[in-house]
């Protein structure tokens, strides 16, 4: 195995080293014009959401300062919503209770987007952001309730940690969670651009796939309920079951001879595990490479190079043609949202340095380089 790992490096996103690999709707919610909450309530809700990010999602906490001021409340509410949904699985003892709590989240989102939020900080801030978005756009832009519900439904589907049958299933999970979070943030800017969404889709898939890898140790050896990391989207998503499981795609495990019971007994030294992790990490890296190449092509006046896989979905199809912006201008406007590629890329780079050992303790802490790398990416408009 050591002879194999000498050539195990992720290309492109991690430095284009010596090895080569194969891969290079908005559901409208009518919102009233009236103020949904007092300024005091909104201020308290904002502070609550910011503190939630500080505690549980360090990457998003660092990235929020790069969001346009008019978008920041929406970003805080969306990311705080994601934390609450993720934590639901980790703080409930049974899937049934988890489903009940997720239904509460659905109801809160529906009421918040209708302008009648429950007295819950995330719902209050989201309702405020939705009202502000409508005011700024004279009612032309609204958040997609279906995208919020998609995130909740996907999390609910994985409350019991069912196995992913293949890598495509992991990509679908990532699209329905992390890519969708980015679509919602783009809506808040406001942006209705297939080009911007297409790039966001690839970055979100990379983040979601990396999250599955990062969560592997937590799922294989789950701690007590309420045990959380502050890495947010990069922390790994732990289901409601406390029994150990190995959440790698079954087809990848079969190709590399990985057996769940051996991982649960031997951890990082289980036969074939690092090779399997390498294959999954390569797919995440490929999505980052694709996003970078798309941005480069679009800025050069070319097309994206391939069709948007999810462009046929209702939320995306409801976009009208842009009357005032070129694709390159849309990419530049959306760039703060794309900065979530930075912590994902840094984590994949560290995974490679640890020879794809997902159990390495240093992979569980925030990368000290992230503030500097994010600032550099923002100022160079290059992630």
UniProtKB/TrEMBL annotation:
GO terms for biological process: mitochondrial respiratory chain complex I assembly. It is found in: Mitochondrion inner membrane. The keyword Signal does not apply. Keywords: Membrane, Mitochondrion, Mitochondrion inner membrane, Transit peptide. InterPro entries: Isoprenoid_synthase_dom_sf (IPR008949), Squ/phyt_synthse (IPR002060). One of its GO terms (cellular component) is mitochondrial inner membrane. Pfam families: SQS_PSY (PF00494). Its main location: mitochondrion. The keyword Membrane applies. Belongs to the NDUFAF6 family. This is NADH dehydrogenase (Ubiquinone) complex I, assembly factor 6. It comes from Aureobasidium melanogenum.
